[in-house]
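From the pipeline queue, job 12 of 40. The input is one protein chain; the requested action is below.

Action: predict structure.
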Amino acid sequence: MEQKEQLLQKKAKELQILNDKISPLKIGLKQFLFRKILFVNADIGKAIVKNRTFNETRFTRGFGIGAKLLGLEFSLYSDGWKNVNARGFSNTLDFKAGWSLSLNIKA
């Protein structure tokens, strides 16, 4: 029975690591290049990093490159946030795809 409990506790700790939630609030820029097809973007902000043991706000930043075709956007994006209990940043490399709606406001 003890081995089973230890195994369950170990699995619970592993799952706790996977339960981290990151909620970013960012501001950034997107610059279109080459006939408004290709773009680069960058952003910075704060992210709430939360799990069962902590709930803290950390610096976050990201940058990416992509293309827009017929209202669809595809990009390769690197996102990172300041670690909570260690030095440095945690990073992800994401592939994003989505539909883009933009407003053209002329002054």
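Job complete. The beta strands are 21-33, 38-50, 55-69, 72-82, 89-99.
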